[in-house]
């Protein structure tokens, strides 16, 4: 009996030792300054993305999305949700957006509330509220519509990319 208890105790000790020595070391907590630095990087990337007029120059806007999101998703990747429609690839996004932007010369965005959650050194969730208006081909801008957007940014090869974006608004554009 004593031998069995000793063997079991030895096995548990070896398993515990292996667990401790092979477990990844957790990353240290980020300081407030580090989080602010990451937010600044993401904000600059967001500003550059908005400057492309995401619905004005789809090719430029797509450069801000990850090329392949399959590693992060379990199941089919969903990199863009526009109201109730989900899209898995950049090609699907472009195909869906092209008809909507065919009759406009621009989309104007105004951000009224912009929040960031720094998940890690390489992942940030952004939520912003604001308005957008559409400028038609004759140069006439329509009314402002409320807009709410969440974006999950990930760092890839030292650049911030959109892994997932969800946008919604309360009124259809006329």
Task: Describe what you observe in this structure.
The protein starts with a helix and ends in a 5-residue tail after the last strand. The protein has four helices and six strands. With 174 residues, it is of the alpha+beta class. It has a six-stranded mixed beta sheet with strand order 2-1-6-5-4-3.
Write down the overall mean pLDDT: 84
Would you count the extended β strands for me? 6
Cα shape: globular
Computed CA radius of gyration, to the nearest angstrom: 23 Å
| Main sheet strand line-up | 2-1-6-5-4-3
Strand content: 25-35%
- CA-CA gap between termini: 82 Å
Q: Helix count?
A: 4
Helix/strand/pairing class, anyone?
alpha+beta
Low-pLDDT stretches:
5-10
- How is the biggest beta sheet arranged? 6 strands, mixed
Sum up the structure in keywords:
174 residues; alpha+beta; six-stranded mixed β-sheet; 4 helices
What would you say about this model in short?
The protein is of the alpha+beta class. Helices cover 33% and strands 34% of the residues. A six-stranded mixed sheet has the order 2-1-6-5-4-3.
Reconstruct the topology from this structure.
Blueprint (H helix, E strand, L loop, with lengths): L1 H21 L9 H20 L6 H5 L17 E3 L2 E3 L2 H12 L2 E17 L2 E14 L8 E12 L2 E11 L5
Parallel strand pairs: 1-6
Antiparallel strand pairs: 1-2, 3-4, 4-5, 5-6
